[in-house]
Write a structure and sequence with these properties.
Length: 184
């Protein structure tokens, strides 16, 4: 079974972007993928800030990335870029740690003004880590994920359609890659 790991780079575990993550995870599990999540905000802050590569938590998280066939990188947009929390974890992924993996960015921002954040801020870092197969991703606007009266985040239909499309692409590419790997 192909493995997908989600790197959640939001500093807040109650962020609306978590609804996007949950939607993606449910979709991919429904297609038969094994899905794991790394909530970077739950990793020890000292290990992240002091780049403790040998930390048990960092070794475990990097192990999940190493075993994955595909990686979904998720972040809200802060100051026209991805979060510092995400950057601290990306700095701890070994050189070429994303080589041979399919990458899918999922970002959320307050407006369309930062639509190109994935292309100009994230993709160069992923490339340095060895990523060569980076899918287009989805950039959502905050207004597409709204809390209802019960506090549940509801995703707009248009956002779900875009997520469905990119998750189908991710599933196809990952299945194809896993099939090639098992044939070798």
């Amino acid at each position: 079974m192909a493995k997908i790991v989600v790197i959640n780079g939001t500093p807040s575990l109650v962020s609306r972007i978590n609804a996007v993550i949950e939607y993606a995870e449910a979709d991919l599990r429904g297609q038969g993928f094994e899905v794991e999540r790394i909530n970077v905000a739950e990793l020890p802050a000292e290990d992240l800030i002091h780049t403790k590569f040998e930390s048990e938590a960092i070794v475990k998280a990097n192990g999940l990335v190493a075993e994955a066939d595909a990686v979904i990188v998720v972040s809200p947009v802060y100051k026209a870029s991805y979060t510092g929390v995400l950057k601290t974890f990306l700095d701890l992924i070994p050189e070429k740690g994303l080589a041979g993996k399919i990458l899918l960015p999922l970002f959320m921002g307050g407006s369309l003004a930062h639509l190109l954040t994935m292309d100009y801020a994230l993709k160069p870092v992923l490339s340095v880590l060895g990523a060569r197969h980076i899918l287009g991703g989805v950039y959502a606007v905050d207004s597409q994920a709204v809390r209802n009266d019960q506090g549940v985040v509801e995703l707009a239909g248009e956002l779900k359609l875009r997520l469905d499309s990119v998750l189908t692409e991710l599933a196809e590419e990952t299945s194809h890659k896993a099939g090639r790997k098992s044939a070798e």
